[in-house]
Design brief:
This protein is mainly beta. It contains two helices and 19 strands. The chain has a single domain, classed as UDP N-Acetylglucosamine Acyltransferase, domain 1 (3 Solenoid). The chain starts with 21 loop residues before the first strand and ends with a helix. The relative contact order is 0.11.
């Protein structure tokens, strides 16, 4: 991966640069640097975008100070929100569709009084937003997995190689490789056939 970071994209409508600690392969495509407007990670390689990967309009890397997001080779992210305080990794050839939310952290305290305190801190916060952070539990999306539109993947979930998540699913548990899951909560629809698995490899 050849890093081409800290640069402006010649085709971009947004007047901002890709952060210096974000690494984009020279053969990857990032539609707009606005995708990194919420990236506050101080890690080296806060976001790593692999060879031939693409991220399109609407994709947001909402990455907290300790977070790291990795996109493998030929990964395609078509307008997802990736909320990461720890680690989100998306494998080679994986497809993440429109309006998908991948969150390795809930960002908001569960305790009601702590939640009220967090909300009261918003008006005087800099920047003015609810950003409580959290420990985070890694999300791992396997090679050639496909996440259907409007789906949500919750903290700690691993989605296996070649798995398919149906549109508008809420994925609360790990998904076995080469299976189709769907619904809220996402449940097994079926296993891929041997032929489908062979085609996908
Ligand atoms: C998951 C998906 C690929 C499955 O397709 P399929 O193998 O043709 O599955 P079927 O349509 O035969 O459905 C099988 C069962 O799963 C259910 N099902 C399928 N997709 C579902 C979904 N998104 N949510 C809930 N249930 C779903 C069907 O109702 C059916 O249930 P039944 O057996 O009780 O009747 C497809 O339904 C889907 O959601 N595709 C998403 C496409 C997408 O996001 N495209 C964006 C471009 S990247």
């Amino acid at each position: 991966m050849t890093p081409t970071s800290g640069r402006r994209l010649p085709w971009d409508w947004y007047d901002g640069a890709i952060p210096a600690n974000v690494h984009v392969s020279s053969s990857a495509y990032v539609e707009t640097a606005y995708s990194f407007a919420l990236c506050r990670s101080s890690r080296i390689g806060a976001v790593m975008i692999g060879d031939g990967a693409s991220t399109y309009l609407g994709t947001m890397f909402d990455v907290g100070p300790e977070g790291r997001v990795t996109l493998g080779e030929y990964t395609l992210v078509h307008g997802a929100r990736i909320i990461c305080d720890r680690e989100v990794s998306i494998g080679d050839y994986a497809l993440v569709s429109w309006n998908v939310v991948l969150m390795d952290t809930y960002r908001v305290p569960f305790d009601p009084e702590a939640r009220r305190r967090a909300v009261r801190a918003v008006p005087t916060g800099q920047p003015r937003r609810l950003d409580h952070g959290g420990p985070g539990r890694p999300i791992r999306i396997g090679r050639a997995a496909w996440i259907g539109f409007d789906s949500c993947v919750l903290p700690g979930v691993t989605i296996g190689e070649g798995a398919v998540v149906g549109a508008r699913s809420v994925v609360t548990d790990d998904v076995a490789p080469f299976t189709i899951v769907a619904g809220n909560p996402a449940r097994l629809v079926r296993r891929l056939t041997a032929q489908e698995m062979a085609d996908g490899r």
